[in-house]
Amino acid sequence: MILEGFVRWLMDNETHGLVTGYLLRQMLSESAAAGEPVACLITDAMWHFTQAVADSLQLPRIVLRTSNLTCFLSFTSLSLLREKGSLSAKGFQLEESVPELPPLKLKDIPVLCTSNPRAADELVYNLVEKTRASKGLIFNSFEELEGSSMAMIHKDISIPVFAIGPFHKQVPASCSSLLEQDRSCISWLDAHTSKSVLYVSFGSLIAIDEAEFIEIAWGLANSRQPFLWVIRPGLVRDSDGPALLPKGFLEMVADQGRIISWAPQEEVLAHPAIGGFWTHSGWNSTLESICEGVPMICLPRFGDQRSN
Asked: What are the boundaries of the signal sequence (predicted)?
């Protein structure tokens, strides 16, 4: 529900154009009048309405994408793929390759999860076209990882493109999560041998069904592998309180696993005891795992997670 509401808000052009845009223009104008003019506006691609604000104030706008280049390329091709009927593919068709976006398959194409696909298409169209109208594009990625996508973007758009990620390696780490990190897991990891622990975390947004949650729990228990599992509030769909683990589970894994509500993930992935990461494939998690050389088991759900 949080994600659906966020997507609905993004697609509300009236809110963007008349309210947020007005407030941003007023703030920038007041800053200039106070002798502190803004030289450049850097905004996320989803905030496409800020291009009109930048144009009205004769400011250059640079677009920031915290996801990868491949996802953005997919957005530029969505209208073509919809015309071809590719986005309505089902069953075995989803395993077919997408010639316009190698090496993606149809199942990997990122789509916005919403009950209003027409409005979502409009959002993506505005996102792409206003990015083309900007003065530059910044990605949280690097050419060694996405060299082929970088080459394709240079052919598709005429503005400068800067792949200067991974961001978390460029600036000191800071905790922006609303959930409190349980740092006791680090001392627990210290007691384990090198590459022996499976780290399990599905990010801050996705929700899974109770049946899948139970299946994951017994899978971890029956693996006989040490594990560190993040079970945050709201992980299980339609559950207001803490997720209910199967009867007897905690006793069975008492010497095998550790369960916490949130983890200092960068530090966990850098710990020598971590041998694998079961992840939802969010881009930040993917980059952090790549940087630490930790292999991943992937459980993508929506958006760019499949292309990641």
From this structure: none
158 and 192 co-located in one domain = no
Instruction: Give the pLDDT confidence of 85-119 residue by residue, as tens digits.
Output: 887 888 888 899 988 888 889 888 887 666 676 77
202 and 125 fall within a common domain: no
> CA torsion, points 22, 28, 31, 36, in degrees to nearest 10?
180
pLDDT tens, residue by residue, 231-281: 998 899 887 655 689 889 999 999 999 999 999 999 999 999 999 999 999
Structure tokens at 118: 């027409």
Q: Is 248 exposed, middle or buried (0-12, 13-18, 19+ CB in 10 A)?
A: exposed
Judge if 83 and 40 occupy the same domain. yes
* Distance in angstroms (rounded) separating the CA atoms of residues 74 and 156: 12
Cα separation, 221 vs 229, whole angstroms: 11
- Please state whether the predicted TM-score (pTM) of the whole model is above 0.85: yes
CB atoms within 10 A of CB 82: 14
Same domain, yes or no, for 136 and 282? no
Distance CA 249, CA 261 (A): 17
* Number of domains observed in the structure of the chain: 2
| CATH code for the domain in which residue 265 is found | 3.40.50.2000
Residue 24 predicted with pLDDT over 80:
yes
Domain encompassing residue 217? 184-305
